[in-house]
Amino acid sequence: MPSSWSTSLRFELQFTGENINLWGEKLNAVLQKADYAVAGWLTKPLTGNAALTTANAKDDEARAAMIKFTGGAGPFTVTVPAVSKTYLVWNACAGPVILTTGAGGTVTVDPGDIVWVLTDGGAVKTPGYGGASIKDWVSGVAWSYNAGALPAQSGNAGKVVVTDGTNASWRALSTSNLSDYASAVRGLALAFAIAL
User: Fold this and answer.
1) Quick one: DSSP state of residue 19?
2) DSSP label at residue 88
3) Which of 132, 135, 133, 162 is nearest to 150 (CA)?
4) Residue 142 sits in the same domain as residue 159
5) Which of 130, 146, 162 is the last residue of a domain?
């Protein structure tokens, strides 16, 4: 009976009694592919939409653990195999890279971003909260307490964000902001002295 192939990473699965006197060579080939699937690095230049290559028991792009995409402004759509797998993706292109299996959800990786993505064989997702990526959650949810907007940073060097419970704004530190600092420090010093 011939060898078969593992579903997600396309490793050769030998049939009992097959490849007598060759099993060590075959096992080493599988271990090298496993090493690439766990810690392997691929740099993939993009000039247009692309698909990661796959090949049973041979070297392929889709088995890589980490992928750095390089290229122009895009946007580029990259199709990954419709099998369960995680990737650490670095978009070094000048424009966005959209990851898809060709079905289900997609993930858009903005230029310069490095993100974890995963696929369950259908949708491509990135870890996050409440159905949003971590980046989108921070942008859309964490700052929602201030109506979704944080005061602009431009022109506010050396200032701190303060809130009155409703609105946030940038302000320079003043002595009134630090009025209880001395007593707080004395209190901490006393607490540390007692603890020692």
Assistant:
1) S
2) E
3) 162
4) no
5) 146
Peptide bond into 75 cis (omega under 30): yes
Residues 139 and 159 in one domain: no
Alpha helices in 20-125 (DSSP H): 23-39
Closest to 53 (Cα-Cα) out of 63, 38, 68? 63
Closest by CA to 46, choosing from 74, 18, 67, 65, is: 74
H or E element that contains 5: strand 4-5
Task: List the domain range (segments joined by +) for residue 192.
Answer: 150-196
Residue range 58-96, pLDDT digits in tens: 889 999 999 999 999 989 999 999 999 999 999 999 999
Whether 57 and 111 share a structural domain: yes
Return d(Cα 12, Cα 26) in angstroms, integer. 8
107 contacts: CB under 8 Å, gap ≥ 6: 98, 99, 115, 117, 124, 125, 126, 133
**Residue showing tokens 């090298």:** 32
Structural domain tally of the chain? 2
pLDDT in tens, 148-183: 455 666 667 777 777 776 677 777 877 776 666 666
* Whole-structure pTM value: 0.65
Q: Is 18 domain-assigned?
A: no
Same-domain pairing of 49 and 134: yes
